[in-house]
Amino acid sequence: GFKGVVVHSSKSGSNFDELVCGKKVLLIGDSYSAEDLTLQAIKLGVKNVDIISRSGEGICVETGSWPNGCVRIYKEYELTSVTNDGRGVIVTSDTEGEAILNDIDTVIYCTGYSPNTNMLDPSLVPASNWPCFEENNFEEYEMLKDWKMPKNSMSEVLGDIPLGKISQPGYVRHDIYRGQLMKNPNMMYFLERTETPLLDMDIQAWLLLAYITGDLSLPSKDEMKKFNLLTLLEGYKNPSVRYDSEENYGEHWYSFAKKHEDHWSNDLSDERAKQLGRDHGDFNFRLLARDMQDVKYPTQIGTFSKLNEKGRSFVNLDVGSDNARTCLNKDSPDASWRTFRDEKNPSKYCSIMTGTRAAPLKCRWLDLNGCSVEEIVDAVKPSESYARSPLNSAIEANVLKSTILGPVTKSYDASVDNPCDFIHSNDNELMVGTSLSNLESVNKKIVLPATLVPTASNTSSIVVEEEERDVSPETDPVREVERTHFSKFQTCDTRESME
User: Fold this and answer.
1) Is the separation of the CB atoms in 473 and 2 below 8 Å?
2) Helix pair 271-294, 197-213: axis angle to 10 deg
């Protein structure tokens, strides 16, 4: 077996420096946890970092450059076995064959979680996939039979591709209507539908409450199915949305990209590729806008048809965050130290809610060591509309601390003075979340997400029983947890693209 240290990213905690300083580190997974830990490891003096990306499409793969040139990414590889008397591993690619990584000291699994719903009766658990749509096999989904994708920027090279097998799209499920299990609407689920999970969860809480209190009426089963199908097809107007979950389209695009590596869709810095991402973001926020409008949410960002100015600002922040990574250039004179946090003009990022603009760091992110606001950024005047409070101050301080030090020490206690277990900074987005990623609680037939809401009470302690997994590379050769948007309650990731 492997003789080095093996941990999950959620367990890296306060002794992270011992795991990485002067060490050779292997990260399994390529999303935001892997990105955060890689940058923190570089700051702490890691010898080198190897990142295994099974999908080849995570944020680490999209990042254009890493400081110090000590990061290698193995795109579309899987860890298959242990070698070199337990000090090395073998990773394998279907197209590139094997690669041996020797003298690995630490393996960190950045694979997220899948919720355990074994305590539920099977009748209360949704199906894992949409039905397989094959020729003349649409059954009750007749409206899909003659559907054709509207012309778009990829039509010229991909052509008209008929619908095939639909895996589970993150934004809609065929057997769940707006969080309610269609065969038993008393069973409700929070779903991670978009790439802004915290806002999404809050909106869904309003939505489910509206159905519980009768402010919204449940339509007929046929109307629910039609609603879901129309939502599915609205998303499939966008190439990148359809690519994520529809087999025929995904395979055609993937094959084309492999054969035409110089095509603009493979260049994330190309304006046409950026527009694909912008269109994807626009759809995500239009989904939220529809629910916000229906429940009279305090903030309105438009409609399902069109975003308003605030909604478009959300999209701009989303796209700007991605661009901060993809535009990093390994051939740039500052490539040895620049990270996505070293934004040249951070003031272009403005809080949608408070009007507060992002502040520049006092120095290079790699050189920052302090934890106080004064040690990290220059003073920033909040907008007049921003009501400061002890809770806001605590959140801001912890967010800034997390920006410098990476993930803060995790606690299963939530209080006003320490309102969150885990804080993730995404340059222009400050997302506050919880480390209890696998938390599930059934209360009044509602499956709650892993989100803690600070209350006025002093402290609320939570006991979580997690299913243990044997993550030894010998027995579990990096079978990365499958990413299903419904089932993954991620700690802090704001994209899930991801693995």
Assistant:
1) yes
2) 30
